[in-house]
Design goal:
The chain is built from seven helices and two strands; from the N terminus they run αββαααααα. It is elongated and about 65 Å long. By secondary structure, it is mainly α. Helix 1 (4-29) runs antiparallel to helix 7 (209-226). Strand 1 and strand 2 (41-42) form a beta hairpin. Residues 236-244 have low confidence and may be disordered. The two termini are 39 Å apart.
Length: 244
């Protein structure tokens, strides 16, 4: 692989970006003890300080571009790992590429959409509006964004997870097959199971499960790249020769 050291450095930096996104998700979605979910509404939103929501948006704005720095390298690694005559490999590589780029834009939108819903609910909660009116107003605002938000959400998670699992299971990537679990879709499922336990600290941990899945996927990609031969770029030789 050309510029292998640079690629590995970018992927390592990308893992730091994923960790920042984990902090962002925890700030906006770790609701604490006694939280009750009512549809899209979380009862502990009014108790959460505005600073948490503000920091969550800032961390997302910082973490997502940093993560994308390494995601571009992982896209290249996936392309190199495919077999040239395999149509399935080509389709999966294209799906991974498309979804990785959509996710870089979409997750900022998803993060902002969910966080702004919490902020609007918290602001309305301090007014004289009835509880039912607050809920209907907040959810009504969210439904205007629901279709593009969920579309970005599904593509960004499923669109990278399925190709990654395909490449691991078919031994295109030089990693252990246990790495098939290292993707955001699997950790989305794990997070939902943890939330069903009704134990608040497990539910709070689950709030950062999706970016943790991205972090592990990047770590697996880093291991794969580390095992590739380092191909140095050949220096261009000028066609013009000096005459003496």
């Amino acid at each position: 692989m050309k510029n292998k050291n640079r690629v590995m450095r970018n992927m390592l930096i990308s893992m730091i970006g994923a960790a920042i996104c984990m902090a962002s998700a925890w700030l906006s979605s770790a609701y604490g003890e006694g939280n009750v979910r009512n549809g899209l509404i979380q009862s502990n939103w009014p108790k959460m300080p505005f600073l948490r929501f503000e920091l969550s948006l800032i961390f997302s704005a910082i973490g997502i571009p940093i993560y994308y720095l390494g995601m571009k390298e992982l896209v290249k690694a996936i392309r190199l790992a495919r077999r040239k005559r395999s149509l399935s490999d080509l389709k999966m590589a294209k799906l991974f590429d498309m979804s990785a780029n959509i996710g870089a834009v979409g997750f900022m939108f998803v993060s902002a959409g969910y966080t702004m819903m919490a902020i609007v609910y918290k602001l309305l909660y301090s007014t004289n509006l009835m509880g039912a009116d607050i809920i209907s107003t907040t959810e009504g605002m969210f439904y205007y964004l629901a279709i593009p938000l969920f579309a970005f959400y599904i593509i960004a998670i499923g669109g990278v997870s399925f190709p990654f699992m395909y490449y691991v299971l078919n031994e295109r990537l030089k990693v252990s097959k246990i790495c098939v679990l290292f993707n955001p879709l699997v950790f989305l499922g794990i997070g939902e199971v943890l939330k069903l336990t009704k134990i608040f600290y497990l539910a709070d941990f689950a709030s950062a499960a999706i970016p943790f899945g991205y972090l592990l996927m990047m770590a697996a990609g880093l291991v794969h790249v580390a095992q590739l031969p380092n191909i140095k770029r050949r220096r261009r030789v000028s066609r013009e020769r000096e005459t003496y």
